[in-house]
Amino acid sequence: MLTLVTGTTGQVGRAFVPRLLAQARPGEQVRVLVRDESHGAALAGLGAQVAVGDLRDSEALGKALAGADAVVNIAAAFRDVPDEEMRAVNRDAAVELGRAAVAFGVRRFVQVSTNLVYGEGRARPHDEDDASIPGGPLWGAYPESKAEAERELLALDGLDTRVGRLAFVYGEGDPHLAQSLRWLAHWPAAKRFHLVHVADVARGLMRLLYAPGADGRVYNIADDAPVTALDVHRLLDAGLPAEAHTRMDEDPWHGIVSTERIRRELGFCPQYPTIWTARDAGAL
Questions:
Q1: What Cα–Cα distance (Å) separates residue 160 from each residue in 211, 229, 253?
Q2: Per-residue model confidence as pLDDT tens digits over 121-148
């Protein structure tokens, strides 16, 4: 089995590929698509094949997909990039990758998405059968483009597509938790959001990749205990504005998801069930 992985220079990709290589069985190979060959050097040293090219270059895609049995599409554009770039990478390039995969006879496609695609809250944790309802404090081009990519990829004939919807990713030096203070400072102190450690993302995606009978299935990947804006500020020794304690949370279930499906169907159990577990293990 040869698996092509995109987005390997981002935080999720850097955590996923080494673990995938470390757990590869005889005959299993990993190929990474990078725009600069030097970015693949470390992974090549671990045993990965390196394909050089842009995700939006059809010729490069053809070379990267040649002989592949599966694709894990981690590539994404988000935070501090124009909306047009988000749509070009998260939707257009992802769908073209899926179509190219079909043309090259790839059997399996794992699409990495986000729990933000749910949009508005439902007065309960979101489950995978919930429709996307635009809205909520973090709605924008990123979740919108990811939701559109999901729909188009799942509709492709001849491709076994599985979707992993990630909660807010942190851990192993990822700066996004600290960066989140920019918007958490404007939230009610008691407002919760759902996290997942990057090591657990890697474990969840490997389950999606290898699981039999998961064709066309969508899975939330998250930890066991959403945290509040106040929790994160305290964890990072940051001061929360006093007015945050008097703000009302109008959508307390926004971004909170159920992980029952991935637990029951794929046997997923997070190594870091809470951010406090990760802190105590020195894994932040």
A1: 11, 38, 31
A2: 889 999 999 999 999 888 999 999 999 9
